Amino acid sequence: MIEQAQASSSLAQAALEYPSTSVSGRIETKHGDAALIKYAELDEREAIRFVSDNGSGATVLFSGTTRDSFKGKKVTKLEYEAYTSLALSTLQQLLAKSHTSAPFTDTPVARSANAAPFSQVSSSQGNQDRVTRCYVAHRLGEVKVGECSILIAVSSPHRKEAFVVAEWLLEEVKKNVAIWKREFYATGESLTALDGQSTPVDSQHQAAAESGARLAEVDGGDATWSWKANFTST
C-alpha cells in the first residue's frame, strides 16, 4: 500500500510539471473500444485482456518503445504532452472508423479466406465482421529508453483484419492525434522538427509553430532536447 501511495504521489507530481491541458483521460465507445492517455506506465496485459473475445481467433498487439538513438544521436529519454480533450475526441473518431472499410481502403489487402464480404455483414452484426474490439493507450510524461509509449491491441475473427486495423490505427494516431514528444539527447546538439522529419528549424520555423512543434528555450549554448509534433500540419 505504501509503494502504491508513493507511486500515485510521483505520478501526480509529474503531471503538475506539464500544461493543465495535458492530463490523463479515457474514453470507451459503443463498439466496446477504449482509448486512454495517462502518465502511468502502460500495461500490455490490460490491453490484451480488454480486447479478448471468445469469438475472435486473432489478437494483435503493438508496443512502441523509446529507442536509444535518432539519426546518429544518442537518445536518453522522451517526454510526451497532449491536448487531452482534443486527442481523445480524435481517438474516438478513429476507433469508430476502425469498424468501417476505411482501414482497408487506405491499406488494400485481401480479406481472410473465411470472412464474409464487408458489404454482406448484417445490421445485427454491425461493422464487427472486420474487427471485434480495439484498444489504444498513449503514455504522457517521461518515457525512458526501452519503456513503452504506445500500445495498440486489436481482436478480430481473422488475423489479416487485425493486422491491418492495428497498423492503420498506429499511422492515424501519429498523423492526427494532438500529442507531442520531446526528445532528449546525450550531446548538446538540438534539432526541432516535425515528427519523422529532419529539416532544420530555421527553414521550417513557421510551419513547425503552426503545427504545434515547440522550440527549446535555452540560456545560451545548444539545447539538449527538441520538441516534435506527433502529427503533421494540414
UniProtKB/TrEMBL annotation:
This is Related to molybdopterin synthase large subunit. GO terms for biological process: Mo-molybdopterin cofactor biosynthetic process. It comes from Melanopsichium pennsylvanicum. CDD domains: MoaE.
